[in-house]
Amino acid sequence: MVRMIDAPIEVSEDGAGRPREFYYRGRRRHVLRIVEDWLETGEWWKEGLGALPERRVYRLFTEEGLLCEIYSAGGRWFLYRTYD
Amino acid sequence: MPDLFLHGRDSGSPLVVSREGRIVALNEAARREGLGEGMSLESARTCWPGLEVLDYERELPLYQRQAAAVWDVCYSHTPGVEPFEVNAAFLDLTCPDAPHERALRIVRDIRRRGIAAVMGVGPGKLVARLAAERARAVAVVEDPASFLAPQPVEALWPLPIDTLRRLRRLGIATVGDLQKVPEEELVRRFGEGGREIHDLAMGVDKRPVARAYPPVKIGRRWEFEVPVVTMGPIERALTILVRDLHDELFRMGRAFGSLTLKVEGEGGVEVCTRRLMRPRHSAESIRNIVKRLLREVVRGPVAALELSLGDLEEAEFRQGLLFDAEVRRSPALERAIRSLRRRCKGTVIGWGDSILVPERRERMLMLWDPMRGGLPWSE
């Protein structure tokens, strides 16, 4: 089952702006490997509130064996989902 | 072998995949160092302390997702795709064409994506799987009985381990030995199961390939940190679940025939399923059904939500015709075009003029008489 979270997180980035580790619910998660990353253009055709913003998404694997996706949008980071 | 785990990871240094303390896959650099499948990981690490190791169980969720990309390729060739391990699937290649050619096309298609693949082709799953273990690209078995005869009786992998041990105790070491035992004798010793043993020994495997991919159900789950009592957080969570599920449904090109909403709360679990008269695929359809179900299933503080779309099937997508006057008047389309022009800094889209096209009968007549005109035309 895919678990949706979409919660803000603190992320430490490397020199290239890629996530190195992040904190969620008081636990530090060290990024073992970035599997993929891509840019989502968001719902640019919608004007006003409620439209999805542009975001850079990273699908990554942590040292604890967690496969998840995090994204950065508007200067903030979010944990989007985890895969069982 | 879980070679899929090595895909995209080969940096030129020795890299192995371990499972239960043994090496189950390795890259070329590791082979050159003298490592091999079956070697104990402890021994390998003693000799190469800096050895990079991928743990099969820990990395499994990642590679199950990557394997899905391979199954998508297979599905583009045949609807009969039955994954049975993270990196292995049975395919139904029943067709009048040469199976070798068809199998080769599939293997090449997968390899074009940079993933090693081999295929075994036979009259059933038993032989196909054994042939794949010996294939460099594609191995076709045309005489299954002869192919099986020299192999140890344990090659009959569909049989239970107890049955295989009993056959060994009876002095049956190879499949060829088993082929010489009359079917009636096997029935006498093993009951009706003896018929299946006899069939398998002769290379007859009647089990069909199940259509197990793509999945017929997709779902998403949301867990609240603390149970919520107001609808705001529940609706926000459902908005995200609906959007994400719809994205996956669209990527799969599928429509759904049923929707299930499960709510977990302090009072227990409530599940409600709605089956549709006809399949739907739009996000709006999902939202509308969820709105109606929500009233039925929310009974108190909510700790978690699960939303699933089931009975998936191929969708027929219909796109609005841009020359349709109704579509042209759509405010949403106007906003989209304005936004596109801003992003592209200039006019890149404009409305085209509709072209007068004569009705078909008139067009046919004009082929004979180009001077015709003034008769029924349509936009």
Please supply descriptive tags for the structure shown above.
heterodimer; A: 84 residues; six-stranded antiparallel barrel; 6 strands; B: 379 residues; alpha+beta; five-stranded antiparallel sheet; three-stranded mixed sheet; 14 strands; 41% helix; extended; disordered C terminus
What is this entry, summarized?
The complex is a heterodimer of chains A (84) and B (379). Chain A has 84 residues and is an all-beta fold.
Question: What features would you describe in this structure?
Answer:
The complex is a heterodimer of chains A (84) and B (379). Chain A is an all-beta fold. Chain A has strands at residues 2-13, 19-24, 27-40, 55-62, 67-73, 76-83. Chain A has no helices and 6 strands. Chain A has a 6-stranded antiparallel barrel. The relative contact order of chain A is 0.29. The model of chain A has no long low-confidence stretch (mean pLDDT 87). Chain B has 379 residues and is an alpha+beta fold. In chain B, 41% of the residues lie in helices and 21% in strands. Chain B has helices at 28-32, 41-47, 56-75, 99-111, 125-133, 144-148, 161-169, 175-179, 183-190, 193-201, 231-252, 283-297, 325-328, 331-344, 360-368, and strands at 15-19, 22-26, 52-55, 81-85, 88-91, 119-121, 138-140, 218-228, 254-265, 268-280, 302-310, 313-314, 357-358, 377-378. In chain B, strands 8, 9, 10, 11 and 12 form a 5-stranded antiparallel beta sheet that branches. Chain B has a 3-stranded mixed beta sheet with strand order 2-1-3. In chain B, strands 4-5 form a two-stranded antiparallel sheet. The longest helix of chain B has 22 residues, at 231-252. The model of chain B is unreliable at 374-379 (pLDDT under 50). Classes of the chains: A mainly beta (84), B alpha+beta (379). The interface between A and B is medium-sized, with 19 and 24 residues.
